Each structure stands twice: as structure tokens, then as C-alpha cells.
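Technical note accompanying the year-one report. For the benefit of new consortium partners, we illustrate the data format agreed upon in the data management plan: each record pairs a sequence with a C-alpha cell string. No post-processing was applied to the example shown here.
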Amino acid sequence: MHVGERLRFLHVIRLINQKIQSPSEILDAGAGNGNYIFYLRKVFPKAKITGIDISKGKIANISNIANLLNLKKILFDKKTLTNLKGKQKYDLVLCIDVLEHIKNDILAIKNISESLKPRGSLILHVPKDRKLVYRHLKRFKEFNIEDHVREEYRIEEILDKIKKSGLRVKKFSYTLGWFGSLAWEIDQLLIVHLRKVRYITFPILYVLILADVYIKNNNGNGFLFHCVKE
């Protein structure tokens, strides 16, 4: 029911389906509620998947779900990207809306790069600098997320940090374009004023979400990258 989360998920899995082939080692760096881990388990049944998150509670929750579903070759660990060290190397790393929560994001990207195998892939999503985002309604112009440690990202900034970490951008696209941002703002209004109505309106908002995913955005409030380690 979370419009922003569903929208990011559909963008990310579409990119994975287009660009990623048969990884044997996968890391979800910021596992959250486990959506990506469970999807990756389905499409890459032979891969070994590791999920890390700073929240011990989230790790425990998705670990319990994996055990209940009897899913094999999935490991979980409470860890941050700034202390991502070890001999384990990955063919694919996902980092979806995580960097804006980390003060030393340069170290985080560097650690991801070092954890990738040669020609390994990083799927990265970050939000645009809140000063530059497009809003349909004026009330969302000053919308801030409390646990973001910076004013999100400008495209030049995140591209520079990716390049300096030894990664090359193979594909870039915008998310949360006109349709997606409209769906998100409507959903936010419903959360505040008409929470129960969300169950009725979600199918309509889902149409806007699909439009955001399948109609190319010339601009948007999020950046999605497919990066490769040289």
C-alpha cells in the first residue's frame, strides 16, 4: 500500500530483468522489509543472497519470514555500509534509498565497489535534492524526511561519487516523474486525512505507478542507476 515503495520496487525489478543475468552472489545493502530479497530468490533460485540492515528488528523479521517459507541460501546480518568489510565478493549489489541515511556516503559507495567482483553490478537508487524536486501541490514543497542526513542528491554530485568509487554508469533513468510524483502526493494526503480510503484508491494510484515505470521520464524526483565495476 506504500506508493513510493511500490514504485521504486517496480522500477528496480524492471531494471534487474533487463540487465542482470544469473548472478551467483547477491547483496541487498539495506534489506528493509525484504521485498527485494524475496523477489531475487524467486528469479535467481541458485544464487546465494545476503541481506544487511542497520535495524536488528528488520533483520529478525525478514529472517523469520525466510525460515517460515523454507527459503534456502539466504543470509542476514546487522551491518552498515560504512563497515562493510570482508572477503565476500558479489556479482550484484542492491542499494535502494539507503545512501541518504548515511553521513559518510563516499565510504559507503567505496565499500560497495570493493565488495563487487570485476564486472559486477550495482543497482542504485537515490532521491533528488529536496530543493529541486517537482511538486504538484504547494503543501509538499517543504516536505522533509527526518532520518535523511543530507538534502538528498543532485545528479552531478552522485555521478561524481560513483565515478570516484571505481564504478561506471551503464544505464540511468529518472523515477517519480509526473505520474509517479502525483500518485505519491495523493497517497500522502490520504494517509493524513482519509487513511481508510487508501484501500479504495490504491488501484487508481497503481495505474499512475505503472505509467511512471513504463513511460520514459524526462525528469523525476529519483535517480536509478545500473553501475558496473571496471
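Partners are asked to follow this layout when depositing records. The chain is about 40% helix and 25% strand.
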